[in-house]
Model the fold of this input.
Amino acid sequence: MTDQPTFLEGVAQAFRDHGLTAALTALMGGSLAIAASVTRKAFTNEAMLELTAERERSDRQRAEDRKADADRLERIETDIRAMRDLMFEAFQRGRTD
Done:
């Protein structure tokens, strides 16, 4: 396994090998790479938070829809039972007459 030099070791090595200009270039390039990494991670975390919030919102909406459907079905079943009972009573009355 090879040892990777740290950021500052890389800058120092560039300074020793190529002078001040290369060291400054390495320092600025490394800083930009760190900034890009932090920014990418921040945007990724924000996107994940938005995705989680959207998923929770859709789950709540689905639960509300299921409850509304269950209530509607309960009302329909109640109406069917009432109509069945009414027809049964009418049939029974008609037979005793």
